[in-house]
Each structure stands twice: as structure tokens, then as C-alpha cells.
Specification:
The complex is a heterodimer of chains A (about 400) and B (about 300). Chain A contains 19 helices and 16 strands. With about 400 residues, chain A is an alpha/beta fold. Chain A folds into two domains: about 190 residues, D-Maltodextrin-Binding Protein, domain 2 (3-Layer(aba) Sandwich), CATH 3.40.190; about 180 residues, Periplasmic binding protein-like II (D-Maltodextrin-Binding Protein, domain 2). In chain A, strand 1, helix 3 and strand 2 form a beta-alpha-beta unit. The longest helix of chain A is centred in the first third of the chain and has 20 residues. The radius of gyration of chain A is 25 Å and the shape is globular. Chain B has two domains: about 50 residues; about 230 residues, MetI-like (MetI-like fold, Orthogonal Bundle). Chain B is about 75% helix and about 0% strand. Chain B is built from twelve helices and two strands; from the N terminus they run H-E-E-H-H-H-H-H-H-H-H-H-H-H. A two-stranded antiparallel sheet of chain B has the order 1-2. Classes of the chains: A alpha/beta (about 400), B mainly alpha (about 300). At the A-B interface, helix 1, helix 4, helix 5 and helix 18 of A face helix 1 and helix 11 of B.
């Protein structure tokens, strides 16, 4: 009897502890390493999974860093799925990486909540002047800098060379030319211009018409300028010279472009590797977005930010400074996957990829895609407004924007 | 005499300690599960309940316990929110369609499979396999089937029906999700109905046959009443599952509940409020509102099926 009871106890204990063996222990640094005479430090880098080419690019950068700094070990932690959800859980449980990717649209919230540390003490002010100022501004609050942008993408107009040649037109440079171009390239199942119910696309038109998306943390899109811009954008759907990529039966604009279902799309540089892989036969070009009353464009960027709970801030900043330094960004420029955030690297990029000059040209007049603390609510409300206009559920754009403003408050 | 005195008390205390030992053994056996349950289920439940009365987001620098108390404000805000109301309406509509259809098909399948056809095991397996698939994988496949130039549209165009883009039209997006859910969970309820059917004694059917009952009368007066506990179980489980629909809605709408909020379900609304709008308190409040709704429905169903169930 006693033996059986002992066995039961033992079995119960083993089973219970074996269950917890699966839980990874997340205490940051193994203290043994810190006592090591080599003072090896492990810096955890959080990133999202990209396609194979992106992964290779980051690995190349990490490799270049490790050869120069053998006693700082970079541990890459790829977050798959919903990055925002995953990183929040990590932050709440104090297991977030030392440095991690932060999209500019989330920057305001993270900066305000103090989850990331200002990095002014670690960076060289002179060196910061090499970065495009509008990119850096996205990560600055109250005069302090919180992140170093690593690369960016503005929107450009991609056009199918064959389709435009057949219609006998040049790539459009103004709103009117865009309208004509879409009309002339629409035939059969092919629509001239691809639309998206995404304020991060039609927002560029709002900016070009002199409107705004947000003013600090408040929505500022309920204006006649914005309504006019949306009327123009969705006129393509009304006149059947354009359609959303979903209506074309695809997952995103790039797929519609690759499958030759549309002649023109508005997107960033991420289309390029997709086209190379999926539609190498499509001849296309890139031009800056057509101009409305003024130039206007949206720019998306990602930066490395510093976790305020990191135990190795100095080493972590060494890593992020290298990855956004001239050597680190040279790797990015040469891979062509994204545009390096430094002005000095812009020439390296255009030297290797002269056909993509449009991306660099678009940069000075682009507004970085930071919509303030209420950003996701503003984007959601605007997106729904776009949907309503597309489905004809509202009288006109002005009415949709009015409803959206109320929802975003 | 002394010996008897010695053994007698030992015997009775022996019985007591045996009972006690069995009790201790019992607790030890369920200890691993209890510990897991407490840590991963009861604990978070209590914390979520507390959070539903507070204002909190995962990005806050203060801990959950230091967060500000807002009492019922979260609940009021959620109930007033038009997106939540749309989500609740969508979810209710979804459940009202999916649950009955699921159960009727499952019952029919169970009757057929039970009816002594050849290859009974084969059909049982084949109908059950979809329940083991990942909801996300099913959603992706259905999206492929129902897209503008997908197989379903190609099939209907044979009959001259115009191709619809089922997933981008607000009226048809939710029905696509409904069909997904029905397809993938019918097998589960079929298996439960099968078990219930096999419990019905053959003698009842024989007696009915002698009395000259038709198939329909046998079904109506023997099968259904004998299946009442099983039907009750299936209705409750099905309703609970339907109200918590999330995976399919997320995949089909790419996370935003579109088009025009037609695929916004309560759980999708909850995750968006918590993780995108950084309002964990409201998200927790939504979870408990959903709990109250499901609980009320279950009680109502119990009353409906009432006396006859042995539950």
C-alpha cells in the first residue's frame, strides 16, 4: 500500500512537472554567460516573418554584424501571424525582445505609453542627419527620438508597359491623365486602375487634394477636399474603368497586376520581388503618383525600437545602429527589397536599380503613415467609409466621411 | 481477549485509513489536471472578470492590478457600440441558421448510417473527418472555391447564373462562413446522434412494427422522444460553438469583419477591441456579456427540453 501511494505521488509529480517543461523560461540573460570572462551578451531581436528574400537579407545583415562584434550574439525571434497581438502579449508578460520592429503607424502609441526608451543618448546627432527627416519624424515625440527607421516604401504608380503602349498613351502625371489612361486601358475583363478600400492607398489622393487624414491624434478627414478626393477615387469604380482587387478575384493589388487584370496599381516597392517571382513576363514601369492640386504621397516605414525593460540596452543599440548604419543599409540597398532610409544610400540604390528611381523621387513629398494615438480607429473608420462609397450605401463621399468622423472619435 | 481487543480497533481504524487513503489517492490522481485547470482556465477567467471592470491595455506600464477601476462603464460602452451590436446581430443570425441546419443534416446522416447500409464504418469515418480539420485551412479552401472565378461560380455559370463574388458582397459573405461551419462540424453531431440512436432498444421498433406503425410514425413516436437527451446535448453544444465563431470570420474578412462589417462576429469584435484599439477592459467586458447570453440561452433550452432529460 505504501509503495503504491509513493508511486502515485511520484507519478503525479513527474506528470505535473513534465507539463511545465514545455514552458520556455524567458528570463533574459543566462547569468552564467554574464559571468563569463568573454562577457558575451545575447541581444534578442524581434522581427516579423517575411518572404524568403527578406529573411535572407536580415540574416546577411546579422552575419555582417557578428563578424565585427563576436561578443554580442544576436538572437533573432521571428513573430508569425498578427504581429501587433503577439508583441503586446510579450510586452505585457515582460518577455519582449531587446529591440524589435515597430511600424510607424504604431509609433505614437508606443512612445506615449513609454514602452520604448528614447535613444538620444545612444545615437550620434550628426549621423541622424543622414536619414530622411520625414522618416525620422515618425519616431520622434517631444523632441526625443525613439527609433531608427531601417527602410521605407512610398507609393508609386505601377503601369503595364504593353497595355499603355497598346492604348498609345504615356504614364499619367495628373489626375486628368490618370482618368484618361484608365479609360483607354479598360477593355473586356481588364480594368484600367486597381482600387483598394484602404485609406493607406486612397489617403494619397486626399493629401494630393490638399486634405488631411489626421491632425495629431484627431481625425481631420471630414473636409470638402477629402470628399472630393474620394469622389474622384471611386469614380473609377462608377465609370467601370477601375475595380477593387477583390472584385478582380485576387488577394491584393500586386496579384491583380501580375495576372494582367489591371493596367495600373498604386503600391510600394514590395511589388517588385513579387512580380519577379510570379510574373517575370510582365513588362512594367514605375512613375511617381499623379499630381492633384499638389504632390501628396504616403510613406510606410519600420524602425528598430528599444524595449524599456531590456537588460542590455547598450549592446542592443549597437546592433540597431549597425543594422541601420551605412554598412547594414548597403546590404538592403543592394538587395533591392526595400529602400534604405539614409540619404547617402539612396544613390547606391538608384545606381543598382535605375528603373526604380520613382521610389526615391517620391520620398521628399511623402507624408509618413503615422496617424497619431488613435491611428487604428481612424484607419478603420476611413476604410469603412471607403467601403460604403464603393457599395453605394451612401449618398456621396461627404456623407460617408461625416459618419466616419463620428466613429473615429 | 487482549488479542481481540488489539485487532478490533485496528480493523475499524484500518477501514477508516483505507477510505482516507483512497480519498487522498483520488485527489492526487486529479491533481495534474486540477493544477492545469486552475492555472490556465480558472485563473485567467478571474483575472479577465476583474479586468472587465478596469481600464487597461497590454501596453500600459502599470500592472493589471494597478489599473484604474471604471466599474460598469466598460459594459455600457460595449453595449452602446454600434459595431458590437452589428456583431451580435450577425452572430445571432449565424447561430439561428447554422445550429438547426447542422443538427437536421447530422440527424439525417446518422439515421442513414445507422440504417444498416453497406460500408457503415466507411461513411461514419468520411463524415467525421471534416471535424478534425483546421478551421483556418477550411476557410482558405472555401475562399478559393467561392471567389469570382472559382469553381462554384464556374459551376453555376453552366446554368447561366451570373458569377457572384461571394466574399466581397456584404449579403453573401456571412452565408459562405455558415456553409463552412456546417460542412466542418456536421460529423461531430452525427456521431453523437449515432450513439443516441444505438441506445434505442430494438424491441420498441419491433413492437411498433407489430402494431402496424409506418416508418414515419416510428420515427416520430419512438426515435425522436428517445433521442431527446441527445438532441438537447447537441443543441446546447452547437449553440455555444456558434456564438463563439471566430476563426472563419477572421480568415474570410482578413481580420476586419468586412465587407461592411457583415462578417463581424462578437469574438472578432472582442479581439479587435482588445488588441487593435488597446481596450482590454472592454474586450473582457464583451467576453462576459457573451457568457451571460450563452448561459441564458442554455438555461432557456434546458427549460424547453425540461422534464424528460436525465441531466
Amino acid at each position: 500500500m505504501k509503495r503504491r501511494k509513493l508511486a502515485t505521488l511520484l507519478l503525479g509529480a513527474i506528470m505535473t512537472t513534465s507539463i511545465f517543461a514545455g514552458c520556455a523560461k524567458n528570463s533574459n540573460t543566462p547569468t552564467a554567460a554574464a559571468d563569463d570572462s568573454n562577457k558575451e551578451v545575447v541581444v534578442r531581436l524581434g522581427c516579423w516573418g517575411g518572404n524568403d528574400a527578406e529573411t535572407k537579407m536580415l540574416d546577411d545583415q546579422i552575419q555582417a554584424f557578428q563578424t565585427k562584434n563576436p561578443n554580442i550574439i544576436i538572437k533573432k525571434e521571428v513573430i508569425t501571424g498578427d504581429y501587433l497581438q503577439a508583441i503586446q502579449s510579450k510586452i505585457a508578460s515582460k518577455t519582449a525582445p531587446d529591440i524589435y520592429y515597430l511600424d510607424v503607424s504604431l509609433a505614437s502609441k508606443f512612445m506615449k505609453e513609454g514602452i520604448i526608451d528614447p535613444i538620444d543618448d545612444y545615437i550620434d546627432k550628426e549621423d541622424m542627419k543622414d536619414f530622411f527627416p520625414n522618416l525620422l519624424q515618425g519616431y520622434q515625440m517631444n523632441g526625443k527620438t525613439y527609433g531608427i527607421p531601417k527602410d521605407y516604401n512610398p507609393l508609386v504608380l505601377y503601369y503595364n508597359k504593353d497595355m499603355l503602349d497598346k492604348a498609345g498613351i504615356k504614364p499619367p502625371t495628373t489626375w486628368d491623365e490618370l482618368k484618361t489612361a484608365a479609360e483607354k486601358t479598360t477593355s473586356g475583363n481588364v480594368k484600367g486602375f486597381c482600387l483598394e478600400n484602404d485609406p493607406q492607398r486612397f489617403g494619397a489622393f486626399i493629401l494630393q487634394n490638399g486634405g488631411k487624414i489626421n491632425d495629431g491624434d484627431k481625425p481631420a478627414f471630414n473636409t470638402p477636399e477629402a470628399a472630393q478626393a474620394l469622389d474622384f477615387y471611386y469614380s473609377f469604380a462608377k465609370n467601370k474603368t477601375g475595380a477593387t482587387f477583390k472584385d478582380m478575384g485576387t488577394d491584393w493589388a500586386g496579384a491583380a497586376f501580375a495576372q494582367k487584370k489591371t493596367a495600373m496599381i498604386m503600391a510600394g516597392g514590395w511589388v517588385i520581388p513579387y512580380m519577379t517571382q510570379n510574373a517575370p513576363d510582365v513588362k512594367y514601369g514605375m512613375v511617381p503618383l499623379p499630381k492633384g492640386k499638389q504632390d501628396g504621397n504616403l510613406m510606410f516605414t519600420v524602425a528598430y525600437v528599444l524595449n524599456k525593460d531590456s537588460k542590455h540596452k547598450k549592446e542592443a543599440m549597437e546592433v540597431s545602429k549597425f543594422l541601420t548604419g551605412k554598412d547594414g543599409l548597403k546590404i538592403v540597398a543592394e538587395s533591392g527589397l526595400a529602400i534604405p532610409s539614409r540619404k547617402s544610400m539612396a544613390d547606391v540604390y538608384t545606381a543598382k536599380f535605375p528603373e526604380r528611381k520613382a521610389l526615391i523621387d517620391a520620398t521628399p513629398t511623402a507624408t509618413v503613415a503615422n496617424y497619431g494615438l488613435n491611428g487604428s480607429k481612424i484607419l478603420d473608420a476611413l476604410g469603412k467609409a471607403g467601403e460604403k462609397i464603393q457599395f453605394g450605401q451612401v449618398a456621396d463621399s461627404a456623407a460617408a466621411l461625416k459618419e466616419a468622423e463620428a466613429a473615429a472619435k | 481477549m487482549l488479542q481481540a481487543q488489539k485487532t478490533a480497533p485496528n480493523k475499524s481504524s484500518g477501514m477508516k485509513s483505507l477510505a482516507r487513503r483512497e480519498k487522498i489517492d483520488g485527489w492526487l490522481f486529479i491533481a495534474p489536471f486540477m493544477i492545469l485547470c486552475l492555472i490556465f482556465f480558472v485563473g485567467p477567467l478571474l483575472v479577465a472578470f476583474m479586468l472587465s471592470f478596469k481600464e487597461y491595455s497590454f501596453l500600459d506600464s502599470n500592472t493589471m492590478f494597478q489599473a484604474k477601476w471604471v466599474w460598469f462603464q466598460n459594459y455600457i460602452d460595449v453595449l452602446k457600440n454600434p459595431t458590437f451590436r452589428k456583431a451580435l446581430w450577425n452572430t445571432t443570425r449565424y447561430s439561428v441558421f447554422v445550429a438547426p441546419i447542422q443538427l437536421v443534416i447530422a440527424l439525417l446522416l446518422a439515421l442513414v448510417v445507422n440504417g444498416g447500409i453497406k460500408g457503415k464504418s466507411f461513411f461514419r469515418t468520411v463524415y467525421y473527418i471534416p471535424t478534425q480539420t483546421s478551421a483556418v485551412a477550411v476557410a482558405v479552401i472555401f475562399m478559393f472555391l467561392f471567389k469570382q472565378d472559382g469553381i462554384f461560380n464556374k459551376f453555376t455559370s453552366l446554368f447561366g447564373i451570373q458569377p457572384h463574388n461571394f466574399l466581397t458582397e456584404p449579403k453573401t459573405a456571412l452565408p459562405v462562413i455558415m456553409s463552412m461551419a456546417i460542412w466542418s462540424s456536421v460529423g461531430l453531431y452525427m456521431v453523437i446522434f449515432l450513439a443516441g440512436l444505438q441506445d434505442i432498444p430494438d424491441s420498441l421498433y419491433e413492437a411498433a412494427g407489430i402494431d402496424g406503425a409506418s416508418n414515419w410514425q416510428r420515427f416520430r413516436y419512438i426515435t425522436i422522444p428517445m433521442l431527446k437527451p441527445t438532441i438537447f446535448l447537441n443543441v446546447v453544444v452547437s449553440m455555444i460553438g456558434c456564438f463563439q465563431v471566430y476563426d472563419q470570420a477572421y480568415v474570410v474578412s482578413q481580420g476586419n469583419g468586412g465587407p461592411l462589417d457583415s462578417t463581424m462576429t462578437v469574438v472578432l469584435y472582442l479581439t479587435r477591441t482588445g488588441f487593435r484599439e488597446f481596450k482590454m477592459g472592454q474586450a473582457c467586458a464583451t467576453a462576459f456579456i457573451l457568457f451571460v447570453i450563452i448561459f441564458a440561452l442554455t438555461i432557456a433550452q434546458k427549460k424547453l427540453f425540461g422534464e424528460e432529460t436525465s441531466m
